[in-house]
Amino acid sequence: MRSTPVLPPLEQWVRGGTRVPVGGHEVFVRQDGPADGAPVTLLHGFPTSSHDWAPVVPAFTAAGLRVTTLDFLGFGESDKPRRHRYSLLDQATLVEEVWRRCGTGRTALVAHDYGVSVGQELLARDPSRVTRMAWLNGGLYPDLHRPVVTQRLLHGPLGPLVAPLTTRRRFGAALRGVLGRELCDADVRQLWEAASRAGGHRRAPRLLRYIDERRRHAGRWTAALEEYPGPALFVWGPADPVSGAHVLARIRTRVPRARVVELAGPPAVGHYPQLEDPSAVAAALGSFLAP
Q1: What global pTM score does this model have?
Q2: N or C of the chain: less Cβ packing under 10 Å?
Q3: Contacts 24+ apart (CB under 8 A), 78-82
Q4: Which DSSP letter does residue 139 get?
Q5: How many domains are there within the chain?
Q6: For residue 98, which of 78, 125, 117 has the smallest C-alpha distance?
Q7: The CATH number of the domain where 274 resides is what?
């Protein structure tokens, strides 16, 4: 097991951002790097938060990039309304509103996990807004998505009963089940703190409706991915049981012009490349994103 944390303290990450009003709710947003730097927007995954990106953001700001990160509604430091009907389409609109408030025009986009579907929706709406696109492990092709047991339970009819029973230990066990390289206990605690803040773990059944949305919009989002005309990069952990080597095989066939960085190790990286091997991810993304 890794003994040294890769994540800075969550409270330190939160102090560097602010909560802004968007659509009747408050959303956590950070901007790092020079104000005149080339814009980059990072979209996080389920069930964590923008804190996932903290290990790689310093490399981007050192390269002169202007980095925008945010917590989707229902995640991290953003509001987590109890009876809200969470939607990937609404999360894409939230990103557009954050861009408007931050004065962000065209931007590079980096997406992971849940964020890849938001990224595909943004591409489907306006591909010219995105200067270049980078993807980390996520359900780009819904028919290849392999949810773990915990996700299947939370997404099923018993989800509202199962969600309140989630503990840090169970969260950590589920997380470690999708990793190729271990995280230290301190990092797992940090991730749980963000996911569970304000009862966030209880929102999982509602948030997991994204699985159904992916199926409904599969044709449109697949086309957005494969027809995007700009530079594209895939930084992928093949040991991921959810969206690993089996997804990468299709990417290589269907998006042949894209650059692929496979983090094969040893040991091979799993579902969270930016946490499992932040130096390799920072290097791959840094060279791709630098103007």
Answers
A1: 0.97
A2: N
A3: 78/19, 78/25, 78/26, 78/27, 78/28, 79/25, 79/26, 79/27, 79/198, 80/197, 80/198, 80/199, 80/200, 80/203, 81/25, 82/199, 82/202, 82/203
A4: -
A5: 1
A6: 78
A7: 3.40.50.1820
| Those residues with Cβ within 8 angstroms of residue 12's Cβ, 6 or more apart along the chain or in another chain | none
The answer to the question of residue 82 being in a domain is: yes
Does residue 174 fall inside a structural domain?
yes
Q: What is the pLDDT of residues 79-111, one digit of tens each?
A: 999 989 999 999 999 999 999 999 999 999 999
On the question of pLDDT at 286 being above 90, the answer is yes
The Cα 257–Cα 227 span in angstroms is: 11
Q: Name the phi and psi angles at 157, rounded to 5.
A: -65, -25
> What is the sign of the dihedral through the CA atoms of 261, 266, 272 and 277?
negative
Compute the distance between CA of residue 58 and CA of residue 186 in angstroms, rounded to an integer. 20
Specify whether the CB–CB gap between 44 and 56 falls below 8 A: no
**Domain span at 25:** 10-289
Residue 154 amino acid letter: L
Strands (E), 75-136: 107-112, 130-136
pLDDT at 2 over 90: no
Q: What is the DSSP letter of 77?
A: T
Q: Which distant-in-sequence residues (6+ apart) come within 8 Å of 220 by Cβ?
A: 124
Helix axes 218-227, 114-125, angle to 10 degrees: 80
The answer to whether position 4 is within a domain reads: no
C-beta of residue 96 within 8 angstroms of C-beta of residue 118: no
Q: Which segments within the chain are labelled E, that is strand?
A: 17-22, 25-32, 38-43, 65-70, 107-112, 130-136, 232-236, 259-262
Helix axes 168-176, 185-196, angle to 10 degrees: 120
pLDDT in tens, 208-229: 999 999 999 999 999 999 999 9
Assigned domain for 1 exists: no
Q: How far apart are the first and last CA of the chain?
A: 37
